[in-house]
Design a protein that fits this description.
Helix 2 packs across helix 3 and helix 2 packs across helix 4. Helix content is 41%, strand content 20%. 18% of the residues are buried. The chain has a single domain, classed as lambda repressor-like DNA-binding domains (434 Repressor (Amino-terminal Domain)). The chain contains 5 helices and 3 strands. The longest helix is centred in the first third of the chain and has 10 residues. The chain has a 3-stranded antiparallel sheet with strand order 2-1-3.
């Protein structure tokens, strides 16, 4: 069985507005949501920078917003399930039960 992995792209103009509205700096948001400062700075700058769902969720929660308010889906890919034993997608140990 496979699972899907979504890659998300920020809407920088919305992120900037939420930071302004909440009186937060990029550094303060990074600390609040336990995300690297460089990640926040790159997103605010509008760089072609893509984050995973966990990071996007943490940033949205740090601002008290829904993830969909800040991010859009950039790509959906199917990935192999992780192995029970070694934590990777391997044929030796077998896939993790869903």
């Amino acid at each position: 069985m496979t699972r899907q992995q979504m890659t998300l792209r920020v809407r920088p103009e919305i992120l900037k507005q939420y930071l302004t509205d909440n009186g937060l700096s990029g550094r303060a948001l990074a600390e609040r949501c336990d995300v690297g400062k460089s990640t926040i700075y790159r997103l605010v700058a509008g760089e072609q920078f893509i984050v995973n769902g966990d990071t996007a969720d943490a940033i949205a929660q740090g601002l008290g917003k829904k993830t969909a308010d800040l991010f859009e889906v950039a790509r959906v890919s199917r990935v192999a399930p992780k192995c029970r034993g070694c934590g990777t997608a391997c044929a030796t140990c077998g896939p993790v039960a869903a």
